Amino acid sequence: AQSVAQPEDQVNVAEGNPLTVKCTYSVSGNPYLFWYVQYPNRGLQFLLKYITGDNLVKGSYGFEAEFNKSQTSFHLKKPSALVSDSALYFCAVRDSPDKLIFGTGTRLQVFP
Amino acid sequence: DGGITQSPKYLFRKEGQNVTLSCEQNLNHDAMYWYRQDPGQGLRLIYYSQIVNDFQKGDIAEGYSVSREKKESFPLTVTSAQKNPTAFYLCASSINYRDNEQFFGPGTRLTVL
Fold it and tell me: CA separation (Å) from A68 to A9, A53, A55, A56, B106?
């Protein structure tokens, strides 16, 4: 079965510093990977996805993610964090053509 | 939250009562989904619909029911058979069932008193 893991419940970073939110996956076949962000009491917003092609995927709000097949990882990154980036981040993998499996989420806290 | 609306935002219900959560989309999407979100557990799929008049059970369908009579609407009923219904419920849609980029509504927080 397909799965994703987000090993960190929370990530703390100072404003202006680079940030990384980790995600590892386990799939049979080629992975379709996604990152979503959730602000308090809101729905999820799509950030970016990897299906094929370049290992570095650029997305919304200055975020990018690096696909690493050998390490089965798809870490979310941003060169310079903003306080407004503080939110809950979810990694997801396609389970079947019509379903996604979500990780448990990582809370990002950016301190001024 | 795009063109997906969920109502109400907050909902309170007494034990033993059924309650229906609304989800409407004006994105002309074929596929729609219902998820349940609990702290520390991420999102779990309750039901999904690939096309109007068709739907399938997700991973935690017990105690829930849905209908898809119109393309733009996918209401979720939480029945009295659901043992622990207090949660945040999220509705989503995608262009079709093969396009996994899902658009989410703002959610409904259900509390059972």
Answer: 21, 12, 7, 9, 32
